[in-house]
Amino acid sequence: MKSKKGEMTKTIGDSSFDNTPEKSTAKENRFEETNWRRVLIEGSRDGIVVVDREGRVYDTSKKFAHTLGYTVDELFNLRIWDWEGNFSKDQIIQMLVTVDEKGDHFETRHRRKDGSLVDVEICSNAAELDGKKLIFCVCRDITDRLNYQKALRNSKARLAALSDASFESIFLSGYGICLDQNLSAQRMFGYTREEAVGRLVTDWIVPEDREIAKNNVLSGYEKPYEITALRKDGSMFPAEVQGRMLRYNERKIRVTAVRDITDRKRAQKEKMEAISEAAESKKLALVGQVAGKMAHDFNNILGIILGTTELALMAGVDPGLKESLEIILEQCIRGKNLTKNLIAFAKDQEPKQEFFSINEKIELILNLMKKDLEGIIVVHEYGRREPDLLADPGMIEHAIINIIQNSIHATSLVDQPEIVILTSHLDDNIHIELTDNGCGIPEEFMDRIFEPSFTLKGSRDRTLSYKGGIKGTGYGMANVKKYVEKHKGQITVSSKPEKGTTVSILLPLTKKELTRQEIETINRDAIRCHDKYILLVEDEQALADIQYMVLTQKPCHHHVDIASNGRVAQDLFNRNDYDLVSLDYTLPGEINGMDVYRYIRKTNKTVPVLFISGNIEFLESIKDLKKNDPYTGHLSKPCMNVEYLNCINHLLQKLTI
């Protein structure tokens, strides 16, 4: 092959490129050996080029020339920097000088004849031939490899992005050691990737549940199971775990997904509580119906016995018979009290709304029970300037009497019986606390004290904690709880056997006007409405006065007409145009709130109607009513002023949508 000077050069396949002395073989054999080597070189998948230290081409394979788009002859007129795409001329010369027999290996880009670039991998080493120092270069086109690597990186990036976008924590582990985690795991548990890698996977589980996880892994169990998870800060949460074993690069890798199921557990709990509450409500409703009917019939029987006994005592009888008649009279009175509690439990009446002083009410009760409280130290500490309570005075009185009666019974065998009554005003609530130093309630019965017909007195007094002859109806605390809940209050009971019992009641206050904070809250509401015409249908004067004031004063300034019964409400609706009707369900007379609603809807299908009621019968019907009529709303009595105005604002806003 000729060089550019016209001198003959030896080809790559020539045997003279061997460093061993030329063998004394026949010319034909050497020719065949030379051709064979050339065939191997030209058949290589890689391009081969030989250059000198000045970068001139000494020889090349057709593959190399083809890769660059040149002919072999054209390459003899080029130097390395004519096709090198990454390194400058000075850098290439320096590389040619420093390369030795050990060779070099690197990646670069070659520029083709058409100007395009191709990625190549170079393996080079130096050798001396015919007194010349030459560089042998094997050049491999790595375009496909780099494309594959890029695709692989992109694929990994996509997988990482998908993994990080998951709401679940995902862990990779081997032999119980964390190998990697996604971003959700960092957010969920608080460990960075650097902190997580190398940790035992059991570090994410509370100690008592680690055996569960271990057994699931060993058994190959692939279905989800639940554990309590442990965060870095020591907090815990319920979690669902599911794992799968994979084989990667001849190694077993476990992929584990962890889901935070706090919301699911809460929803399940709420569902079970709702089911239990519904079942309890049905049971109590049935018990109430039966109790009411029995109490009515029993009262008739008691009335006859009581009247006859009193007549006999008045007529005068011998002392022995008189004692028997007095026992009958005493038991009739006890039966009367029992039926009173039964009727109170059976009735589903809404609380009446009146303002009264809770301290004055307690003083009245203590005065009424003066005879029953003989021998008992009664300490009462009332808070100063307590605001009046808007509530049903009869229900509150009955509740407090029942609690005090229980304290009287509980202290019947105590040497120095004492009852302490405290009242205070706390965070818009009236707090009533009654404490005695009586026998207390065993812990195993604390969750049953509000059950109807449950009592520890009389025949159920296994510990002889009560004085003989004391018997309970079992409906006292059930009624107390019922009354408190009807007023949207809270009741708690704490007790220790032989130490005493404390009953705490919180009743929400309803103010006669809006506070500055409530006005600011309403002003911030984006859907606040004002200057509307409202028909207020409410028979309880105290409640009607409050609603009138909060509606007509700032920030609403509505125009309000008041109707105290259904007949007046219908008449006012006929004569005026209203933007909203605030409607009590329970009204005096023959026309109730539902009758007024139906009357309104005959002529007006869109005027908003806000029902105010806690009646159970009504609560069942309002659900279906609201589904079919989007312009209806509901609040249970009693309700906070802000709650009342916000509900009205939302209903009025529907007219503008």
Explain the overall architecture.
The protein is an alpha+beta fold and 657 residues long. The chain folds into five domains: 15-141, 2-Layer Sandwich (Beta-Lactamase); 147-260, 2-Layer Sandwich (Beta-Lactamase); 272-346, Helix Hairpins (Orthogonal Bundle); 354-508, Histidine kinase-like ATPase, C-terminal domain (Heat Shock Protein 90), CATH 3.30.565.10; 526-654, Response regulator (Rossmann fold). It is built from 20 helices and 22 strands. A five-stranded antiparallel β-sheet has the order 2-1-5-4-3. Strands 7-6-10-9-8 form a five-stranded antiparallel β-sheet, with helices on both faces. The protein has a five-stranded mixed β-sheet with strand order 12-14-15-17-16, covered by helices on one side. A hairpin with a 4-residue loop joins strand 1 (47-52) and strand 2. Helix 13 (393-410) runs antiparallel to helix 14 and helix 17 packs parallel to helix 18 (593-603). The model is unreliable at 1-33 (pLDDT under 50).
Number of domains: 5
- Ranges with pLDDT <50 over ≥5 residues? 1-33
Q: State the CATH class of the largest domain.
A: Alpha Beta
Number of strand segments = 22
Q: Can you list the strand order of the major beta sheet?
A: 2-1-5-4-3
Largest sheet: 5 strands, antiparallel
Mean pLDDT across residues = 81
Helix content: 40-55%
What class would the helix/strand composition place it in? alpha+beta
Distance between the termini: 92 Å
Give the CATH superfamily of the largest domain.
Answer: Histidine kinase-like ATPase, C-terminal domain
CATH architecture of the largest domain: 2-Layer Sandwich
* Shape designation: elongated
Alpha plus pi helix count:
20
CATH topology of the largest domain: Heat Shock Protein 90
